[in-house]
Design brief:
By secondary structure, the chain is mainly α. The protein has helices at 2-25, 32-39, 43-49, 53-61, 76-93, 95-104, 115-134, 144-166, 171-182, 189-192, 199-225. It is globular and about 60 Å long.
């Protein structure tokens, strides 16, 4: 267990270092040597976990995906709002997630599948909307595919603007505004008032996520010490 824990820690250190260098220099200008120096690991250790710079980039891109699943909600559309709030929260606090988004938008990252993170986000939104539609939560005119693409693009634009204007300090507020304008266009009126779309709701969701992450991390640390 201790050896496994060390391997996980080493892999995470390599990812964090790669993310930092990608963010500073861009994908094309980054070298494996720079990542090795930043991570403080041997070339053998790096290649044990990642076969190439492209493989490292894909690992960084995967950081956008949630490592702790959100609980199911009585109103399925609430899960869409929760996903948006939580990604905003992680963008504010997690350097690896920020680097992942920056890499996805890096037009110089030739040879890296930058479609995957966007498609994963669209697919995630589509899945929620399909269940919402089956439950009768959506207005009859809503097309799931088009709506998923629209919401994903709108979120990407909002977070990019927030980054440029104030280093994402107001991102939870901006996502709340986005949701409060977007949800009435797709949600049946009877359910709309039951959705948590406020900035206060988003901040509490983020705090709960952090607490759960710390609880799991402490529990895993306890297991590896035995």
């Amino acid at each position: 267990m201790a050896q496994q824990a060390r391997a996980i820690k080493t892999r995470q250190a390599i990812l964090q270092s790669a993310a930092a260098v990608f963010a500073e220099r861009g994908y094309e200008r980054t070298t494996i040597g720079e990542i090795l120096v930043r991570a403080g690991v041997t070339k053998g250790a790096l290649y044990f976990h990642f076969a190439s710079k492209e493989d490292l980039a894909l690992g960084v891109l995967d950081a956008q995906m949630l490592d702790i699943p959100l609980p199911p909600q009585a109103i399925k559309l609430q899960e869409l709002a929760d996903q948006a709030f939580l990604l905003a929260h992680r963008l504010q606090r997690d350097a690896l997630v920020r680097a992942s988004v920056a890499l996805a938008l890096d037009s110089g990252a030739t040879g890296v599948d930058r479609v995957a993170p966007f498609q994963a986000w669209i697919d995630q939104v589509s899945e929620i909307l399909m269940v919402s539609k089956a439950r009768g939560e959506l207005l009859v005119h809503v097309d799931v595919t088009d709506t998923a693409s629209l919401f994903s693009g709108a979120f990407s634009g909002v977070q990019a603007m927030s980054q440029i204007l104030c280093d994402r300090k107001d991102l939870i507020h901006r996502v709340s505004v986005l949701l409060q304008h977007f949800m009435p266009s797709i949600c049946t009126p009877a359910l709309l008032t039951g959705l948590g779309l406020t900035e206060e709701y988003g901040r509490k969701l983020g705090a709960d996520y952090d607490a759960e992450w710390q609880r799991r991390n402490a529990a895993n640390s306890g297991e590896t010490e035995d």
